[in-house]
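User: I'll paste a sequence; please echo it back and then give the predicted structure.

Assistant: Echoing your sequence first, then the prediction.
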Amino acid sequence: MKILHLDTQKGFRGGEQQLIYLALGLRELGVDSIIACSDELYKKAQALGFGAIDSKNFYKLQSTARKCDVLHAHASKAHTLGVILKLLTKKPLVYTRRVDYKQKKASKIKYMLTDKVVSVCNAVKQVLYANYRINSEVIYSSVDFSLLNQVDPQKVESIKKQYGYPIIGNIGALTEQKDHKNLIDAASLLDKRYTFLILGEGELKDELENYAKQKGVDNVVFLGFKQDIQNYLAAFDLFAISSQNEGICSSILQAFMFKVPTVTTDAGGIVELIGNNQRGLIVPTKDAKSLALAIEKMLSDKELSRKLVSQAYEFAKDFSYKTMSQKYLYMYKSLLKA
């Protein structure tokens, strides 16, 4: 079996990481993947030995699609591309929806022409049904526990020495969806000896840096995209997410895996990960004061922190990329049988 994955996003964000995890898992199951993409994902796919083609080369896309068994789109624009390729090649199309915000009404046409829609959490599933009456299947995002074995203790110690205690980490694209201004507002309410490390790139980088300056917050550091994300996760004393919209936020699962105490907003599918403050502390979106108080509580109450971290780590074990890949393979096979 051969799958053509479609991703039109720039940069390398959570969705692109999940695509790579899926391709790796499928390869272990004997399934070939070709990844149509660009930018950082293209480089990553090639480095890992996957067939990679330029997502803008439509002639190559069409000829490749005809040689594959299933088309799998991983982003909204890629979904549009997938529908066009499906109509031309008659190949079954899968689309994975990763975010919970509403789309244009015209997007319903794309869903009607898609053979199988996957939501990365129940929150996304509910939004799709409310908007389009689409019954999607939930397949959660995943983590790779082998990342724990890739930590460089010397690099971790260097990060800790450079920034001191406590280091509050955040991983995510610098977009409106992630609402980093909320995190900056929370930082302005906390002790200035706390260091906030924000990892990720995005169109709002300059705006966010200027916003931090306006708020007089010089302990918020924008580090950009990092290849060795595992070393930063291992160095964090706390992980904080301030999003106003989310799918599942797989970086939270990574924090769980690295046993980092976690504080988040209640956006999208995050509640499905945190539970009722069972695996971290959860606060309303756009409430900087509550976010700051939760950060303080998690850092000061060591017994609570240890309890939540332990429960979160055990919870994360159910989100292996191998399990996710097996579920997608079952779906592909069912489409081909149909």
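The chain has a mean pLDDT of 95. Residues 2-142+320-337 form a domain with the Rossmann fold fold (CATH 3.40.50.2000).
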